[in-house]
């Protein structure tokens, strides 16, 4: 890959994450999703990554987006699957079918919450997991995405 070609990162936010800013602000904070996406797009540019953002409350739409990422040559996916983390074998299968490295992100520390949030259908197949860092976890995810694409291109 030439040095001025940005690697492609897709951010997927799952159900109810369109409500951050007003949803349980003691857990998820006061920043809205559009504000977060704007901040991350700026940060991605600094890291020479091209970020696209997608949010859906619908499991099948998230699966379709993961499939589409393959044909769009997305290099890394960052995903906060919301409650689908704890329920969705179908999203797990979607990741297994595209073979794109992905990072699982949770704003809250799910391990300090209800027991049903302790299990993830994705963590064991993720390239990494960022849990409980608040919205900064997404920025950390961008750094890790950069690290993944850099270490890959240094091997080619
Ligand atoms: C979440 C944690 C999930 O358990 C929950 O259902 C969410 C958000 C988080 O970012 O902390 O919707 O993924």
Task: List the SSEs and their pairings.
Layout: E1 7-13, H1 25-28, H2 33-46, E2 49-55, H3 59-71, E3 76-80, H4 89-98, E4 102-106, E5 128-131, H5 136-153
Parallel strand pairs: 1-2, 1-3, 3-4, 4-5
Residues 16, 80, 82-83, 85, 106-108, 110, 117 line the site of 1,3,4-trihydroxy-5-OXO-cyclohexanecarboxylic acid.
Family: Belongs to the type-II 3-dehydroquinase family.
Pathway: Metabolic intermediate biosynthesis; chorismate biosynthesis; chorismate from D-erythrose 4-phosphate and phosphoenolpyruvate: step 3/7
Function: Catalyzes a trans-dehydration via an enolate intermediate.
What are the key terms here?
38% helix; 5 helices; 5 strands; Rossmann fold; globular; binds 1,3,4-trihydroxy-5-OXO-cyclohexanecarboxylic acid; 156 residues; alpha/beta; 18% strand
